[in-house]
Structure formats: C-alpha cells, structure tokens
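Worked example (supplementary).
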Amino acid sequence: MTGVWALLGALAVAGAIGVLLKAREGRISRNESVDLPAPVRDLLAPGVTLVQLSTTFCAPCRHAKVILSDLADRTDGLTHAELDVTNLPDVAAALGVMRTPTTLALTDDGTEVLRVGGVPKRDTLLAALQPHLR
Amino acid sequence: MPKDAPVDPRGPRFSAWMTTVVLAIVLLTGWWRLLAAQTVLFAMCAFISLKLNPWGHVYRFAVQPRLTPTTEREEAAPLRFAQGVGFVFALIGTLGYATGLTALGTVATSLALVAALLNAAFGLCLGCEVYLLLRRYAPALARPQ
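After joint prediction of all chains, the assembly is encoded as:
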C-alpha cells in the first residue's frame, strides 16, 4: 500500500515541479549589479551584451544560443556572447546563477540591466531591452 | 570515455516514459530485481554509451519510422548526465529494497521516478537544473566528464 501512496506522491510532486519550471522558463528578472568576474567582463562589448551562461550538460543552451545570436544580429547595439561555466563554477556562484541557460544583459560599464532564466522568449526580451538600447 | 553522437531528442523522451513505467512497477510491487536491472541500464548509458539503451533501439525501429523526421539534434552529454543521476538514485533504491530498508528503497525510487517523469512529460533538462548546484554543494559528485 505504501508503494501506491509513494507513486501518487511522486506523480503529484513531478506535476507541481513541472508546472513551476514551465512558468519560470524565459522569465525576466532584475538583480542588483555585482562585481563582474573577469571572464564575464572580458566579453562586454559597446552597447548591451547578452552574456549567456551555459554548461556541457545543458541541452536547451543550444536553443537559447540560436535565439539570442539571431536577435543580436538583427538589433543594433546588441551583442551576444556565450560563456561555458562547466569548469568555472565560481563565476556562476559570483553571479548568483544556479541553472543554465541563464542570460545576463549587461551594459558596457558592467551594469546588469536584466537577466533571463531558461530559454528566452524573443519578443518579451527585446521589449524589455528596448529602453537600454541606443 | 567514448563520446556519443547527437541524437533525435524524441528518443530520450520515449526512453524516459519507459523508465517512468519501470519505476512505477517497482514502487507498486517492491520488486528490487527489476530496480537492479534499471540501475545497470542507467550505469551502462551514463558510463559507457547511450547506444546500449534498449529503449533507444525500440524507439528507432518501432516509433521513429511512424513520426515525421526531424533535423533537430540533442547533444549526448546532458543525457548521459541525467542517466548518471538516475543511476545514483536507482542504486540507493536497490540497496534499500534488497537489504530490507524498504522506506529508503521507496524514497529513492520515488525521487528517480519524479526525475524521469519530469523529463518525459515536461522535457526537463536535469543537467541544467542541478549541475551548478552539485558543483557548488557537492563538487566531488559533479566533475565534468
């Protein structure tokens, strides 16, 4: 009988986590700017840079890369750069990043404009970035 | 460690549904030998090659021909990472059931089932969600391969 309850519990937990993760996917948030680690600072370009943090073990990072590099190609003043943090856990920790892909929109002086968890939604992201693009 | 070629992403989803069913049977029956077999399967996929997954072959021969072809491909590394996480939970579960610690077996199997179902139903990428956390809180468990 315990097994039946365990199975029902597991189904309920998986459903709840799944709905929560789907809701979080591509959500834009704003964090306090932090002191940027050198590998991130090195990527900053004039205008706004979308720094995408990825790892080897991340399948959707490829989708995020396609969306973001296409968006950057079509938008003036926007650059996309990918940083593989598989071997740079300190960089991820310093930025408060716990999951990949996470994308940080940073101005050329290193100020964080916004960040996106998961695969970004193109139009929503562009609308949020618009005020910061020159 | 041999490197696997990228795969049709629907294959691992099919495989995750099959794993969910196997783990559900284990929970309902407490049949630890079935869980032991699943543990071996996780280990082969995680540490040797994804090609050893029999569900992958079932998918290629029985399911894929009925679906519209896709050019989309998924890298093997995230899949193997997920199989490794499945291996840890299934191993703990097997040891629990086999040694009479049924509660441990049930909890570990339930956790493995949650992960498999999230993968099957929602396409959850386990490596995306837990790799950085593991690196932070249990560095020894998450060395890159």
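Two points are worth noting when inspecting this output. Chain A touches chain B through 33 residues (CB under 8 Å). The beta strands of chain A are 28-29, 48-54, 78-84, 102-107, 112-117.
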